[in-house]
Amino acid sequence: MSNGKILVADDDSAIRTVLNQALSRAGYEVRLTSNAATLWRWVAQGEGDLVITDVVMPDESAFDLLPRIKKIRPELPVVVMSAQNTFMTAIRASERGAYEYLPKPFDLKELISIVGRALAEPKARRNLMSAEDVGENMPLVGRSPAMQDIYRILARLMQTDLTVMIMGESGTGKELVARALHDYGKRRNGPFVAINMAAIPRDLIESELFGHEKGAFTGASSRNVGRFEQAEGGTLFLDEIGDMPMEAQTRLLRVLQQGEYTTVGGRTPIRTNVRIVAATNKDLRTLINQGLFREDLFFRLNVVPIRLPPLRERSEDIPDLVRHFFTQSEKEGLPSKQIETDALERLKHYRWPGNVRELENLVRRLTALYPQDVITANLIDSELEPPQPNQTSDVPSNDETLSAAVERHLTDYFSEFGDDLPPPGLYHRILKDVEYPLIGAALAATRGNQIKAAELLGVNRNTLRKKIRDLDIQVIRASR
């Protein structure tokens, strides 16, 4: 007995043969065609329980056919295949009402699983919302398997308001993903508001998020609108959420639970209607174990986790990214450039600690500073090679002062950002970085004697105790 009839449309005879064999072995009846006209005739006659079709057909695109299929048979699931493998392909498939999008080549076991899942679902759940064409401007670049997984997740999320947590190293494009969720989702007509938690002083974060009333604190000379109010009806992107102070975490959790907030200094609750997308380059579970992040807030934010792979895990995307950045630079008035195959290979074997942002900065630098029309491998080597050991400015000497060491460290730190600047708040971050080893060294030197350590540091004993507690320094007492 057949498990159902599958209609397959693809102008590649090899693919039709493979799909026929795999689906037949799984117990399905299969009908094959190489054109959209025959597929449409079958669908219009009421044939088939599921459609598998390539996007590019000799007589018509599947994207043009899909709306007609969904109009006469909204319950019929359609699985779209494509070798184009771009973000916009996945989005357009979702918006036209496809049940699933599969980039070629694909795993046959995965296809069989998708078919089984689609046929097992109630028919009412298969009719996805369609939307207007969103154009061909591609916000995300890459055709690697890792990026295909991202595209498929995003396509499924477009017509939802689910809270999303984007995880990835600095420079992987977390805000681009957040903007794509907004620009191609059902809140596209609302505002997209971004706030970087690492760039705002701790004592101002609540005011930035929720706004404040006139006179709420010293310097509050007028009412201030917070980011939640600015994002009403749209998307609020909370970048570097791991840097949010505990007090603000508590207030954010309350907003997510109750759907309302009060301004700083205000009393009247304000209802909110925003989609939350958060991002972090830190391991939040580690922060939870250290008592620096609320576990209940993590579960509220981590409804749909998306991990953005670092560039070194998708090096096959580098040629597409380079061409994309060359095109961007040319639109900005910089000279047109090409790149040798050997040069691309050099780029593909580099580790990219700064990820896509570092690659973009390199491409812009190559475009702006070098007169050559073709970027060579030697040019790439000269840009990517590490500093030579004889450069004394980068090598600490035995008699190097603390001031000189800090200056050297900051020079290296600033260079990591290329033409950009580090996030604001650097002064307090540096002090915090110095404070921990300084207090730890003082406690070690005094064998954990806090009275002597406070005297050594020149601070009040209560101040030292508070620092030990805030910095989570483990004090080991020992006798001399």
From TrEMBL:
Family annotation (Gene3D superfamilies): 1.10.8.60, 3.40.50.2300, Homeodomain-like, P-loop containing nucleotide triphosphate hydrolases
Residues annotated as domain Response regulatory: 5-119
UniProt name for this protein: DNA-binding transcriptional regulator NtrC
Any single Gene Ontology cellular-component annotation: cytoplasm
Residue positions where 4-aspartylphosphate is found in the record: 54
Upper classification of the organism: Bacteria, Pseudomonadati, Pseudomonadota, Alphaproteobacteria, Hyphomicrobiales
Locations listed in the record: Cytoplasm
Domain Sigma-54 factor interaction, chain residue ranges per copy: 140-368
One Gene Ontology term of the molecular function aspect: sequence-specific DNA binding
Keywords annotated in UniProt: Activator, ATP-binding, Cytoplasm, DNA-binding, Nitrogen fixation, Nucleotide-binding, Phosphoprotein, Repressor, Transcription, Transcription regulation, Two-component regulatory system
CDD domains given in the database record: AAA, REC_RcNtrC-like
Functional note: Member of the two-component regulatory system NtrB/NtrC, which controls expression of the nitrogen-regulated (ntr) genes in response to nitrogen limitation. Phosphorylated NtrC binds directly to DNA and stimulates the formation of open promoter-sigma54-RNA polymerase complexes.
A Gene Ontology biological process term: regulation of nitrogen utilization
Predominant localisation class: cytoplasm
A Pfam family assignment: Response_reg
UniProt xrefs under InterPro entries: AAA+_ATPase, AAA_lid_NorR, CheY-like_superfamily, Homeodomain-like_sf, HTH_Fis, P-loop_NTPase, Sig_transdc_resp-reg_receiver, Sigma_54_int
